[in-house]
Specification:
Elements: E1 3-9, E2 12-18, E3 28-31, H1 32-38, H2 47-58, H3 64-77, H4 83-98, H5 115-124, H6 157-174, H7 212-222, H8 237-250
Antiparallel strand pairs: 1-2, 2-3
Length: 255
C-alpha cells in the first residue's frame, strides 16, 4: 500500500508517492497529468492496453517504450507489486526475523541518531515556556489521580517535542509502574488485528527490553498468534518513538 501526498515545487503542484512499510526508502514525484497513467499500473492492463486507454481519453498517448521505461523504473525502485518486489520484501523481512533486536529504524531522521544528542534533544522538550519544566517535582506515584494510561504523540520529535514533555512528566510524577504496554497504530497496514514482538526495541540510548512473562500471559489469553504479523514492527514509528522516550526518562530511574 503506497501513500500519496501533495507537494509543490517552483510553483507547480505535484504528487509524491512513498511506501509507509519501508520496503523502499525512495520517494517518487509525479506531475499531475502522469497520475492517470500511473493509476493504470494495476496488474490488469498490459502496456498496450494502457496506451490505448490514454489514446481514447486524450487523443494522444506516450509510446509503449516510454510506458515500459516508466514501469521498469518504478519496479526497480520497489513501487510495483512484482516478482522483483516480492524478492525485495522477502529479503528485508528475513533479515528482520534474524535480528536479535528491533533496529532503531528512524534514528537520525525522526530524532537524533547519537545517544548524547538524543538525550539533549529530549531534555529540551521539558524546557519552559513550551515545555512543562523538568520532571521530578513529585516522587513517582504521588501525583493525584494516579496515572493508568497515557496518550502521547507519535510525530517526529522536532515537531511534537514539548507535547512529549508534558506527557512524560505526567508519567514520571503520577506512576511508579515498571512495566508498560505500548499500543501503536500501523500506518502500513497488516494482516492481523494486533501484532506483538519479542524483540527489544533498540535505541541510541540502549535497548528497551521485552517482558516475556507478560507476553506469554497475554498470548494465552488472546488465543491467537500475536507474532504472525511481527514484521509490521520493522519500520513502524508509532511504537519506536514511545520506546525512545521511555528509555530516556526511565532508563536511569527504574529497572
Amino acid at each position: 500500500m503506497l501513500e500519496a501526498f501533495p507537494v509543490e515545487q517552483d510553483g507547480e503542484r505535484l504528487v509524491a508517492l512513498r511506501d509507509p512499510a519501508g520496503f523502499t526508502d525512495q520517494i517518487v514525484v509525479f506531475a499531475l497529468p502522469l497520475l492517470d497513467l500511473v493509476s493504470l499500473f494495476d496488474g490488469e492492463h498490459s502496456i498496450g492496453e494502457i496506451q490505448a486507454v490514454l489514446q481514447e481519453r486524450y487523443g494522444q498517448a506516450p509510446t509503449m517504450e516510454q510506458i515500459g521505461e516508466l514501469v521498469e523504473r518504478l519496479d526497480e525502485a520497489g513501487f510495483l507489486d512484482s516478482e522483483r518486489f516480492e524478492e525485495r520484501r522477502r529479503t528485508i523481512e528475513e533479515a528482520f526475523r534474524a535480528s536479535p533486536v528491533r533496529p532503531a529504524a528512524h534514528a537520525g531522521g525522526a530524532y537524533a541518531g547519537e545517544g548524547p544528542a538524543l538525550a539533549a534533544q529530549i531534555e529540551a522538550f521539558f524546557t519552559p515556556p513550551e515545555g512543562p519544566g523538568a520532571p521530578g517535582g513529585l516522587p513517582a506515584g504521588v501525583g493525584s489521580p494516579p496515572l493508568r494510561g497515557l496518550i502521547a504523540p507519535h510525530i517526529d520529535f522536532h515537531r511534537g517535542g514539548s507535547v512529549y514533555g508534558w506527557a512524560y512528566r505526567a508519567l514520571l510524577e503520577r506512576s511508579d509502574a515498571d512495566l508498560f504496554v505500548i499500543l501503536g497504530t500501523c500506518h502500513a497496514g497488516m494482516g492481523d488485528p494486533f501484532a506483538a514482538t519479542l524483540k527489544p526495541y533498540d535505541t541510541p540510548l540502549g535497548a528497551v527490553p521485552v517482558d516475556r512473562d507478560f507476553y506469554e500471559a497475554l498470548s494465552r489469553r488472546y488465543g491467537a498468534d500475536l507474532l504472525s504479523s511481527e514484521a509490521a514492527h520493522r519500520s513502524e514509528h508509532s511504537i519506536e518513538l514511545q520506546a525512545v522516550m521511555l528509555r530516556h526518562v526511565l532508563g536511569a530511574r527504574r529497572p
